[in-house]
Design a protein that fits this description.
Length: about 400
């Protein structure tokens, strides 16, 4: 039994691999936009487990779906059918407007799945020779941490000494349609263009207006699949159900994770129309837990909450208010350069170098003041609260953030 934060941190330090550098806070309870540490201190959660807890912590409807299903049937594997998967797939494909869904568990797995589908599509439908298919990716991407995905990462910390790396990826600048066009024109064997509609881990980089639309047009022109990784941006986070909806773009392959299950159970999914998805045949891809009844029940409930509670609209309104209030402060700020984002996926950029510890120091001070956020770089702090946040709570949070930042102005 854990009785203090210190004790829990010491245990992790001694017995756990050191593959993360968490803020020194030990959480034991969550409800809506709040979490509590083991000493009983209450915080606003301004990270939402990297945009997974969009529906708020322990949403009663999602938790109910979990506990009800847990008493009936949890896992069959795909050796047999279960009575939840089909209804979940019907609901989700209608919701996101695709023919078919392939269920997985984590974001990285879903990205790997999309890469496999795109390659097979290129070999079978486009006549690309075996072992020649290439996927175009962007500088400063984040798509997960498998050996293939880190092969095309820019993050040296994530990549170094984990080689040999997987071939088959061409990297171009983000938000650069000229670079995309050039690469598409100069290469014959392109299967797909894999892109985050907003780069989350890179520090919430919002591309220029029209970028996604133009990129999709170029992909169409060159018969290349437009693959949107909406693991972080999807499920109402940016003020629309999907971030590509801001530009009315329909991807050929859509990758979802995180908030598809409201953070209650790991679920991810790849969606595509028949022409693409039907390249996958029995035995070619799968996972013991992918498509299990617990996942299906939880994800269906989590998507219903997004719709029933108008969380996309709330994210848009609260996001606009958040940036407006912070911008008022930033005009005279020496410490904050700018705030950027869409909906409730935002970041502030600090007037300091990427290697500085300023963002970390500010997050430590925010923690003292009752708000939890995490830097993405030494000078960037991401702000991504649950989408159920109301106006009063949001204003309270902005007060905490500004009061904290003011201490750093001195
Ligand atoms: N894609 C994007 C855009 C992400 O932001 C993340 C996680 N931050 C992932 C993929 C990987 O998801 P997971 O951690 O569930 O593997």
């Amino acid at each position: 039994q854990i009785t203090s934060s210190e004790q829990a941190i010491q245990l992790e330090d001694k017995h756990g691999a050191h593959n993360y550098h968490p803020l020194p806070v030990v959480l034991t309870k969550g409800d809506g936009v709040h979490v509590w540490d083991v000493e009983g201190k209450k915080y606003y959660d301004f990270l939402s487990a990297y945009s997974a807890v969009n529906q708020g912590h322990c949403h009663p409807k999602i938790v109910q779906a979990l506990t009800d299903q847990a008493q009936k049937l949890t896992l069959t594997s795909r050796a047999f059918h279960n009575d939840i998967l089909g209804p979940f797939e019907k609901y989700a494909t209608e919701y996101f407007n695709f023919d078919k869904l392939l269920p997985m568990n984590t974001g990285a797995e879903a990205v790997e799945t999309a890469i496999k589908i795109a390659r097979k599509w290129a070999y079978e439908k486009k006549g690309v020779p075996e072992h020649k298919a290439q996927i175009i990716v962007c500088e400063n991407n984040f798509h997960g941490r498998t050996t293939t995905i880190i092969s095309f990462s820019n993050d040296e910390g994530a990549r170094k000494n984990f080689g040999p790396y997987t071939p088959g990826f061409l990297k171009i600048a983000y938000d650069d349609t000229a670079a995309l066009e050039k690469t598409l024109e100069e290469n014959d064997n392109i299967a797909g263009f894999l892109v985050e509609p907003i780069q989350g881990e890179a520090g919430v980089y919002v591309p220029s207006e029209g970028y996604l639309k133009k990129a999709k047009e170029l992909c169409e022109k060159h018969n290349v699949l437009f693959i949107a990784d909406e693991v972080q941006t999807g499920i109402a986070r940016t003020g629309k159900l999907l971030a590509v909806d801001h530009e009315n773009v329909k991807p050929d392959i859509l990758i979802l994770g995180k908030a598809i299950s409201g953070g209650v159970y790991p679920v991810s999914a790849v969606l595509a129309d028949n022409e693409v998805m039907d390249v996958i045949q029995p035995g070619q891809h799968g996972s013991t837990f992918g498509g299990n009844p617990l996942a299906g029940a939880v994800a269906t409930a989590a998507l219903e909450v997004i719709r029933d509670e108008n969380l996309a609209e709330n994210a848009e309104n609260m996001g606009n208010l958040f940036r407006e209030l912070l911008n008022d402060y930033i005009i005279d700020s020496k410490i904050v350069k700018l705030v950027r984002g869409k909906g409730l996926l935002n970041a502030i950029v600090i007037n300091d170098s990427e290697e500085s510890s300023t963002a970390w120091d500010i997050c430590m001070a925010l923690k003292e003041n009752g708000l939890l956020a995490k830097p993405t770089h030494g000078n960037i702090i991401r702000f991504a609260p649950p989408l159920v946040m109301n106006e009063e709570e949001l204003k309270d949070c902005v007060d905490i953030i500004i009061t904290t930042l003011k201490d750093f102005e001195k």
